[in-house]
Design a protein that fits this description.
The protein is of the alpha+beta class and 407 residues long. It folds into two domains: 181 residues, AttH-like domain (AttH-like fold); 134 residues, AttH-like domain (AttH-like fold), CATH 2.40.370.10. The protein is 16% helix and 47% strand. The chain is built from five helices and 23 strands. The strands form two sheets. Strands 1, 2, 3, 4, 5, 6, 7, 8, 9, 10, 11, 12 and 13 form a 13-stranded mixed sheet that branches. Helix 3 runs antiparallel to helix 4. The chain starts with a helix and ends with a helix. The relative contact order is 0.15.
Length: 407
Amino acid sequence: MKKLIVLISTIAVGIVFLAGCSSVPDGKPAMPTTGADKLNYKNEGAHFESPFEYWYVTGHLDTDEGRLYFATHFHRVGSVYMQTRNAYNSLRLPDGSYDYRSVGDGFIQTLTGNKLKEKMERYPDMKIYKEIHDKLVNNESEHFTYVPEEDRPMYRNKLFIRMNKNSIERATDTTYLYNLKLDTWAGLLDLKMEAVSEPVRLFQDNIVHVGGGSLIWYAKPWLDVKGTFDRNGKQQQVSGEAWMTHMWGTPDPRAMYSQEFIMLRLNNGGAFLLINLYDKDKKLANTKFVYQKPDGTLETGMKVTTEPVDTWKSKATFETYNTGWKTSGDFTGTVKALYPDSEIMLDYGVGAFWLGPCRFEGKMGASLFSPEITGEGFCRVVGTEDKPGDSIVEKIKKKKTEETKSK
């Protein structure tokens, strides 16, 4: 009898062990129910009273040749009448070839030129910075395009932004349907995106506090994408998935000197967003983790920490970016970039950040019996080379102080 009890117990433990080591079932997110939310519709537009705001979309598309990855970033800085705007896009073709494009107003063009002058002074032997600078001021840059005022409209009460041939627009106020057009280095993307999950909205009770200010944001992790890709005079149908994020507020630049955003759609139909913000001493100043369950509800009490395990150094900016992380806490595993060379710049060598596809492999939880889970999405990393927290005035003062010390 004892042998039978031991046998039954052993079998039971084995069943628990096997169940605990299984993967979470693949799933799809719950369809959104708040498409007609007028507050969200209005909040998707520009907040001109806020000094800091951006919108970005990242995703993958399946083409006749295989999978490509795209990213775009629309940005505005300044309040009411004193503001500047720019945008970026990048494209990774199925064969691995990659490039980016940047557009902006006259202020951005001047700022880019000044940054190139700084590079010329810092690295006098690198003639490429002067070549890039001369092309920029003559409007002959391969990567940067000046956009006149009439070609960069931006609306307040709905999402509508156009920067030359790049645009994003909310198509209707009753569903989460968007139109996105990107004039990439390899051709024109004309996409329709529809949210198939509830938005992750944190602009009411859950404000992300950053230093002495705040950031308000929302994300739409699951967008079904369909459209066309025009390349070399040939058009083909494409389809895939995307993630859209909109962030605005009055953040304290000193508390977001460098940044890491990890945005992943999970194979169970859920999604998670992890934000790490660092001060100028590279100390973690603020972190935020949000898990969206497959049913669309949010779990904000979970915690995930990261430890860098991979880096990539740019030959253009000499910036070193984290491109791989070990995660601990409620999601344990690794996040790794699929393509380390995913840097985007205002123009070659300046105004850079890293935005590329990445993948998560690990478990939900840290125990031996935690279920395995995978995720795919994008990671965004802002380094310290261009120091986003420094205003132009602060940079000039800092440079003069350094010159005085050197004398």
